[in-house]
Design a protein that fits this description.
The complex is a heterodimer of chains A (436) and B (166).
Chain A lengths: L16 H6 L4 H9 L2 H11 L11 H6 L10 E6 L8 H8 L1 H15 L3 E6 L4 H16 L15 E6 L9 H8 L23 E5 H19 L9 E8 L5 E6 L2 E2 H8 L9 E5 L8 E2 H4 L3 E2 L1 H6 L8 E6 L4 H15 L5 H18 L5 H14 L7 H15 L1 H10 L21
Parallel strand pairs in A: 1-2, 1-4, 2-3, 5-11
Antiparallel strand pairs in A: 5-6, 7-10, 8-9, 8-11
Helix pairs in contact in A: 2-6, 2-9, 3-6, 3-9, 5-7, 6-9, 13-14, 13-16, 14-15, 14-16, 15-16
Chain B lengths: L10 H11 L9 H12 L4 H11 L3 H8 L13 E6 L2 H5 L2 H12 L12 E6 L11 E3 L4 E2 L4 H13 L3
Parallel strand pairs in B: 1-2
Antiparallel strand pairs in B: 1-3, 3-4
Classes of the chains: A alpha/beta (436), B alpha+beta (166).
Chain lengths: 436, 166
Amino acid sequence: MERILTRWLDIPDLRKLDVYVGNGGYKALRKALFDMKPEEIINEVKNSNLRGRGGAAFPTGVKWSFIPKDSKKPVYLCCNADESEPGTFANRYELELDPHGIIEGIAITCRAVGAHIAYTYLRGEFTVQKRILDAAIAEAYASNYLGKNILGSGFDLDVFTHRGAGAYICGEETGLLESLEGKRAYPRNRPPFPAIQGAFGCPTVVNNVETLANVPHIINRGADWYKSIGPEKSPGPKIFCLSGHVNKPGLYELPMGFPLKDLIYDVGGGILDGKALKGVIPGGSSFPIFTAEEAVKVNMDFESVRAAGSLMGTAGVMVMHEDTCMVDALKTIAHFYHHESCGQCTPCREGCGWIEKLVTEIEAGRGKMEDLKVLIDAASNMEGNTICVLADSLSMPVKSFVPKYRDEFEAHIKLGRCPFKDRDGKAGGLSAAAGH
Amino acid sequence: MPANQPPKFSDAALAEYRQLLGRYPTQRAALLPTLWIAQREFGWLSDETLDYVAHLMELPPAHVRAVVSFYTMLHRKPVGRYLLDVCTNLSCRLRGADKIVGCIRRRLNIEMGETTPDGKFTLGSAECMASCGTAPMLQLNQDAYVENLTEESILKLIDELAGRDN
């Protein structure tokens, strides 16, 4: 298959402006500025069925169309580069290796929705990536792909990078907006939605890096071409992030709908040390785990993964083999969401802490059988009862790990220790996982 | 920064701060970037530094402190010259992050969150840093990633860093 989003594998130095332009870069921006009306850009993206790549899979063109056409207030675009979903590392490489692809996507999107300022919100850890993007933005200004009267079109656009400082919740779009405004990243109640009242009280589009990187290709080659890749309802190329117990972890661009089995055993080179597959989280740690039996039957597109009982999220595929202690794995996940809960909503703040504590006790061999019911109850009771979906993001792993690997949870309780470790609690399980 | 001297941005930092203000419709939006400048200038964010930032930006000191306490990368106490933030999230643990942490602890004789007595190394843990395909990994001084870590490579890195100033 032709590589589209990961062209950098075929084009060395794609991150440099002259190489990017030499390979058709900024042609889509010219088309969007001179040959298309904003409405036509929105319609093309709507027709392409491009769905947001940040986890929620909302149709991008539809999101853009919510921006009021005759807004008296300025309109903003926020490029979400807060990539933090455990298991996800696509945006990171896009920023490092194809920054102009992102800038061009930003510029076309701004033209479509009438924005003249775009902020790229990078997670605090993306120091190197911010440097690269800042350098590319400076190149783009110098060649008038950004700035005043872009390429003589009369369209003005300023693009700024904004660095976070370490908080998962900044990836949630309203948390991002609060953080951008210089506050704690407390997600907002909706409505009003960002399209009406987003950054600084003005209409705002928030799009993920990978979503924006798709846009120039759609404008260049058309919605029909885009829809010809992968399944009709969630088409397009997709970057899959493969990690965990596979021989060849890494980024793989594949059409939507690619079989998970082939991703693991063919593309990913199979399971480490020839061991048996135990479980796969298909979309980043917020989503239900598949058992080995479930995983090998699933195709990786939004509809198919949902139909199989999980969600594709950010396509962060985390693979676990037979030596993995699933209680320890869930403990790791629970610790993360407890740590990252912003604390605004009681069910999440208390629920995530309670769940972490219970799973930690069970893993340490101090659990009780009734704890398993309490885990499910706590997870169920925080679901849907909070401002944002962080609580659901722990509820889903709990409600899939516990029933699907119930024998392992019970074994910890009955034995009074982790069955994967020796009697001193040292060797074995996740703590003994080998590096390279 | 000399003791008892109230913190103040250098001229270059002040110029950078003023340029930041032009990017946003509100002054408050420049808070996180300004805190990054402060951390770069002073190494960490003391009460006095936060008061200085609050005064500079005409923001309530309580607001500045509330924001700082929300974000894990802003230091409220001094850290070592070399800050090693090891990812301890799932993908890195599946590839041996626990062993890497153990290796660092034993080599430096410090626990997670501690700094060596000579002020050279701080061991920290971090949540997933978007480097799962090259796990296990760490971030050095909140900048470059060091990836595909092994017990050998982490010891080599520590020795190399330890020798830099000697």
